[in-house]
Specification:
DNA-binding; mainly beta; globular; 10 strands; about 10% helix; about 170 residues
Amino acid sequence: MNRLDRSFFNRPTLKVAKELLGKVLVFGEHQGIITETEAYIGLDDPASHAAKGRTKRNEIMFGEAGFAYVYLIYGMYNCLNFVTEEEDFPAAVLIRGLKIMSSPPVILDGPGKLCRFLGVTREQNNTDIITSEHFYVADVGNFVNFKATPRIGISSGVDKLWRFIVKF
DNA sequence: ACCCCGATCGTA
DNA sequence: ACGATCGGGGTT
């Protein structure tokens, strides 16, 4: 497995979000192809948790690239992100879709479903994806086409086409 | 202490 | 179309 290093994540978030498509997410016994991502970028992105500055919850987004940002949404669901870009610039990529290559394959179309299946919870918040033994992303040479759309479930920043989804 | 609401999902 | 469910963050 050609595991992604910190320099992959320490780049412009739109590049990282697009290039994560087709990569393999490994979490313990589970692994799957990333099929859908969203970018959340900087203090000026109104849809980002970091839009109103640093807080206890979002401070991980201000940290070093290559760490997991996991938060609870709607009191029930966990969402998995990977922090991108330089320290002190808040940005992350939300992992929204995964295809588990079992037989038959399992399609996980949604950030909450994906975390529930994998068993990702807030215990994984702040995990270093670059050095963790059981939690990382690998490049297996998959090439994918994708399309860009507005992000899902947000009420501002709808003009930005920062959701990326593989085309079959 | 209180209130509003959210990067969702399953059911109707 | 709507309810579940609860913590984050702002306000009193």
